[in-house]
Design brief:
Layout (H helix, E strand, L loop, with lengths): L1 E3 L5 E7 L3 E4 L2 E4 L2 E5 L22 E5 L17 H15 L5 E5 L1 H12 L6 E5 L7 H25 L3 H11 L21 H9 L18 E6 L7 H10 L5 E6 L6 H4 L1 H13 L1
Parallel strand pairs: 5-6, 5-7, 7-8, 8-9, 9-10
Antiparallel strand pairs: 1-2, 2-6, 3-4
């Protein structure tokens, strides 16, 4: 469905599982887990079907960011983290959701970090998965060289320094297969993703270059789980450690996964979903 979140902006939204379930003589309300996808310029499809394993403990809301995927196209002036972070609140208001658990994967984690800064009282819990607080170029390059040699390092350097369509195409060919440490369980999963390259290039050439989300994390007012793969080249473990250190100590939880790349549930779904389940139920 497409949900109007105000001012004529419509987001594509998909809901998995009931929010209210029978419990004896009454009804029990499950927590709402909002999943924010990576990219930028991608869509929510990477969460499916894996995240269905959590539908017994949470109602899951998948959506495509403003202008992304199956959401309505929007002007480039709205392709920024402030707007996307505020959209979490707008979406919850439109759907009548109070105190969600908000999960941001990769670029979705950028949005979630800005959401913590701008709306620290809104969430019940936040999950920052395989994400970064800033560019950290040298860490990326070192990890890509470790995983794919000098060719991968050079392709990453060209793209992250000068994000042209050709450099993006070269990066995708040389580096994308290095994101994870094991082949995808579903080889066709990537083909289902709707990509808007213009959004990706706009963000990487613009807001991404000077990005620093660390100061805003001090505003967190709820538990925050930081998940990181120890072999993730694009959002290295050190990035996650910096995020955890920037959060108020009473709220921060860091879980790292050995032998795992970008999106822990892809390379070690048993461990990743166990950690998510424990955090949601806590």
């Amino acid at each position: 469905m497409r949900i109007d979140i105000g001012a004529g902006v419509r987001l594509f939204v998909d809901v998995e599982g009931p929010g209210l379930v029978p419990d004896g003589a009454g009804m029990c309300e499950k927590p709402t887990l909002i999943c924010m996808h990576g990219g930028p310029g991608f869509d929510h499809s990477a969460f499916k079907p894996g995240f269905s394993v959590l539908a017994d403990i949470a109602q899951i809301i998948y959506y495509d960011h403003r202008g992304h995927g199956r959401s309505d196209a929007r002007p480039s002036s709205e392709w920024n983290l402030d707007t996307l972070a505020d959209d979490v609140v707008r979406l919850c208001d439109a759907l009548g959701i109070s105190k969600p658990i908000v999960l941001g994967q990769s670029f979705g984690g950028f949005v979630a970090q800005r959401y913590i800064e701008r709306h620290p009282e809104h969430a019940a819990k936040v999950i920052l998965s395989s994400t970064s607080p800033h560019m950290a170029m040298e860490r990326k390059l070192a990890m890509f060289e470790k995983r794919g040699g000098p060719e991968a390092r050079e392709a990453a350097l060209r793209f992250w320094s000068d994000p042209t369509p050709q450099h993006w195409a070269d990066y995708w060919t040389s580096c994308r297969h290095l994101y994870n440490t094991r082949p995808p369980q579903d080889p066709q999963a990537g083909s289902r993703t709707l990509i808007r390259e213009e959004i990706l290039l706009h963000f990487v050439a613009g807001e991404k270059q000077g990005l620093n989300l660390l100061p805003g994390l001090a505003r967190a007012q709820c538990p925050v789980l930081v998940m990181a793969g120890e072999e993730d080249p694009v959002c290295p473990l050190q990035d996650a450690q910096e995020i955890a250190a920037a959060l108020p100590a009473q709220w921060a939880q860091l879980v790292s996964f050995p032998g795992v790349g970008h999106g822990a549930w892809r390379d070690d779904p048993q461990a990743a979903f166990a950690a998510l389940r424990q955090f949601i139920l806590a």
